[in-house]
Amino acid sequence: MPSSKEIYHPPVMVKEVIEFLNTEKGGIFVDATLGGGGHSEAILKSSPNTKVIGIDRDEEAIERAIKRLEPFGDRVSIYHAAFSQIDEVLEAEGVEQVDGVLFDLGVSHFHLRGDRGFTVWEEQPLDMRMDRRQKLTAKDVVNELSEKKLAEIIYRYGEEKFARKIAREIVRRRKQKPIETTLELAKIVEEVIPKKLWVGRKKHPAIKTFQAIRIYVNKEFEEIEEGIPKAANFLKKNGRLVVITFHSLEDGLVKKIMKSLEGFKILTKKPIEPTEEEVRKNPAARSARLRAAEKVST
Ligand SMILES: C[S@@+](CC[C@H](N)C(=O)[O-])C[C@H]1O[C@@H](n2cnc3c(N)ncnc32)[C@H](O)[C@@H]1O
């Protein structure tokens, strides 16, 4: 497996992000999910008059972004925080209003191809924390929550119809010995889901269960519910909110939140999808969906 330093996360839908954020005239932009810094770099390159305030709750992402964005000097400020803390970040930065905020949600290639327990394909400790200052890990969730709660999480955040059976099997197995690694969990799910539904297909049967546990561990939906409306409050008139999601549950949530924002015009009736050319070059972009809104009154 490549070390996380060798992994590259190609930013998705860069052209669309730059257009919807309307960075051409310059201004202050918040990249709420800095990751490898690819979108921030594109914002900074799109006009000499742009500044970026970057946020990520993953320390490794912060380290990479600092390096990548170094050439832009004081046009960039970087914060190790959750985007639900955008108010604190902007206060620390002494900024009252911004021209645009980008959320490129979910995990990065660094997570999926690294060694922190996000993958169903490699033997790794069950961790899945984006922010390692946090205490709760995937191992705690799998070994400590009740069968009912586990079933609820796997059903709700993974849309997994075998959720109850999977939860029952997890609880049965953990009585024999704690479930400690990604492959131990992946195998339990494999044993529950009928083979005819997954053998010979590319998608691993445990992907939905892993997604669900990851969302729970990182409180991803609570972060979105808190972070997007907070970010919207800091936009100037004509400021733009751009959100990229990677699965339908997340997209549905973002759609609902955008609709509920007062004084905003939705710019994307339907979510924008990546071009075929982009998907050909970067298959991971396949499920990306972009929604954007503009603040029309203050
Ligand atoms: C899809 S990646 C972003 C990739 C980035 N746009 C790029 O061009 O490299 C998502 C990033 O968001 C971070 N993240 C996810 N949820 C977060 C949250 N609630 N607060 C701060 N960062 C978060 C993850 O740690 C990850 O680095």
Quick summary:
43% of the residues lie in helices and 15% in strands. With 298 residues, the protein is an alpha/beta fold.
What do you see in this structure?
- The protein is of the alpha/beta class.
- It is 43% helix and 15% strand.
- It has 2 domains: 14-110 and 220-295, Vaccinia Virus protein VP39 (Rossmann fold); 135-217, Putative methyltransferase TM0872, insert domain (DNA polymerase, domain 1, Orthogonal Bundle).
- α2 links the parallel β1 and β2 (50-56).
- Mean pLDDT is 94; it is low at 1-5.
- It binds S-adenosylmethionine.
- S-adenosylmethionine is lined by residues 9, 11, 33, 35-39, 55-58, 61, 82-83, 104, 106, 108, 130, 223.
Topology:
Blueprint: H1 14-21, E1 27-31, H2 38-46, E2 50-56, H3 59-69, E3 76-80, H4 86-93, E4 98-104, H5 109-112, H6 138-144, H7 147-158, H8 163-176, H9 182-192, H10 207-217, H11 220-233, E5 235-245, H12 248-260, E6 264-266, H13 276-281, E7 289-295
Parallel strand pairs: 1-2, 1-4, 2-3, 4-5
Antiparallel strand pairs: 5-7, 6-7
Bound molecules: S-adenosylmethionine.
* Proportion of residues in extended strands: 15-25%
CATH superfamily of the largest domain: Vaccinia Virus protein VP39
Number of helices: 13
Proper CATH architecture of the largest domain: 3-Layer(aba) Sandwich
Features:
alpha/beta, DNA polymerase, domain 1, 7-stranded mixed sheet
